[in-house]
Specification:
globular; Glutathione-S-Trfase_C_sf; Thioredoxin-like_sf; Glutaredoxin; 4 strands; Glutathione S-transferase Yfyf (Class Pi), Chain A, domain 2; alpha+beta; 9 helices; Glutathione_S-Trfase_N; 204 residues
Length: 204
């Protein structure tokens, strides 16, 4: 398998965390791929019309996207489910997966806005992104005990990568302030072998 990937993409990191957790990382060849919101990468677009990473190319030529589909596919390759539990626990894992992905989506859009000269930014958008993040962090702080108690699942992977992206691209926000329990949980996430192996600082 080949993965179109970028080391600073939190979605690509989530896929690789999944690969390490499921033991499928050794079957994936990483293709360092540059994409951005203002252009199209022709190589990626041959497989994914949206020209986005991550995009997974299977050995038979099939392309899988987006990260949610890729993660579930990699989990299906394990002898038994690793990150996608069955029964009632599945819905909690998927809820947190959606929350983590939603935070990442908002952060990427927010970063694009922050990169503009100040006079070209849209204040309402900036305020909305800040509000969404603040409410999400407060909710996760309240749920930190449940996060710590539950077996590691895809929701944990998504949230861990979202918070890691905050560290990488929004270190000025000091998100840990007022979120001590969530910060403790995230420290545990970053200490996992799958997180250490996929941290942007560890990748070339």
């Amino acid at each position: 398998m080949k993965l179109h990937w970028g080391k600073m993409s939190p979605f690509a990191r989530k896929v690789m965390v999944t690969a390490h957790e499921t033991g499928t990382d050794g079957r994936i060849e990483l293709i360092d791929t540059r994409v951005d919101m203002a252009s199209v990468n022709p190589q990626v677009q041959l497989a994914n019309p949206l020209s986005k990473v991550p995009t997974l190319l299977l050995d038979d030529g099939t392309a899988l996207y987006d990260s949610r589909v890729i993660c579930e596919y990699l989990d299906s390759l394990a002898p038994e489910p690793v990150l996608f539990p069955q029964g009632a626990a599945r819905w909690e894992a998927l809820r947190l997966h959606a929350l983590g992905d939603g935070i990442m989506d908002a952060l990427i859009l927010w970063r694009q806005e922050r990169l503009k000269p100040e006079e070209r930014r849209t204040p309402a958008w900036m305020d909305a992104f800040a509000d969404k993040l603040a409410v999400a962090l407060d909710q996760l702080e309240r749920e930190a005990a449940q996060l710590s108690a539950a077996p590691f699942h895809i929701g944990h992977a998504a949230l861990g990568c979202a918070l890691g992206y905050l560290d990488a691209r929004f270190d000025d926000l000091n998100w840990r302030n007022g979120h001590d329990r969530l910060a403790d949980w995230h420290a545990g996430f970053e200490a996992r072998p799958s997180a250490i192996a996929t941290h942007p600082a560890a990748l070339t």
